[in-house]
Amino acid sequence: MSVVLREAWSTVVPDMNDRHGPLPPMMLALTVVTGLVDAVSYLELGRVFVANMTGNVVFSGFAIAGAPGFSFAASLVALAAFAVGALLGGLIVHRALTHRGRMLLYALLVETACVLAALIVTLASGHPFVGGVRFALIALLGLGLGAQNAISRALAVPDLTTTVLTLTITGILSDSRFAGGGGSKAGRRVLSAAAMMTGAFVGAVAVLHGHPRLPLLLAVAVLAVVTTAAIVLARADAPWIRPIVRK
């Protein structure tokens, strides 16, 4: 248990001389944003995710099969918007390749603008969010989360992908000493899952209690804090800013 707690602590309060420097807590914050935003998309926009594309592929199959409550058009818009966001994130990665802090900052500016625009759309429209408003929200949020996913992939902070937890949860057990592994890094991995669950929980509570815009407001607030930190980090000159070389 002490090892797990140390791993969790080093994620929240990282060693600035570590290979990933201050990035782990920022990735955790973005994971919370994922939970908040997907709570809105699934509960308010009709069984569609804007961050979890695996879910949308499955939902598309359900919709094509005629399962009630699923929209092929909504899933397709989410997939397309996410793809455009990922492309934009890729362009950012390759233009700020030599500095991970700047890479993160530019992506955060894009994501914050998209989520803020989505919040403005909800404030300017009535509730429930239907028709063109629904698809505008799916597109804006999918675009922002696509950029986030592309950047988190490029930053390559271990076990902090911000949008996908399947491999993270698998690693907790498959890499454990019980399975014959060298250690599962359970502290960081559990913290990542808890961050997304926390965002989803808070978002769901807000939506279910009649405050459908509140999760987006909270997401913008978290993004504003992380972006402010990224502005400082974009001027950093430390070992962690060097890009990860993929083999």
From TrEMBL:
<dbReference type="InterPro" id="IPR010699">
    <property type="entry name" value="DUF1275"/>
</dbReference>
<feature type="transmembrane region" description="Helical">
    <location>
        <begin position="72"/>
        <end position="92"/>
    </location>
</feature>
<feature type="transmembrane region" description="Helical">
    <location>
        <begin position="23"/>
        <end position="41"/>
    </location>
</feature>
<protein>
    <submittedName>
        <fullName>DUF1275 domain-containing protein</fullName>
    </submittedName>
</protein>
<keyword id="KW-1133">Transmembrane helix</keyword>
<dbReference type="Pfam" id="PF06912">
    <property type="entry name" value="DUF1275"/>
</dbReference>
<feature type="transmembrane region" description="Helical">
    <location>
        <begin position="214"/>
        <end position="234"/>
    </location>
</feature>
<keyword id="KW-0472">Membrane</keyword>
<keyword id="KW-0812">Transmembrane</keyword>
<feature type="transmembrane region" description="Helical">
    <location>
        <begin position="48"/>
        <end position="66"/>
    </location>
</feature>
<feature type="transmembrane region" description="Helical">
    <location>
        <begin position="104"/>
        <end position="123"/>
    </location>
</feature>
<feature type="transmembrane region" description="Helical">
    <location>
        <begin position="129"/>
        <end position="147"/>
    </location>
</feature>
<feature type="transmembrane region" description="Helical">
    <location>
        <begin position="190"/>
        <end position="208"/>
    </location>
</feature>
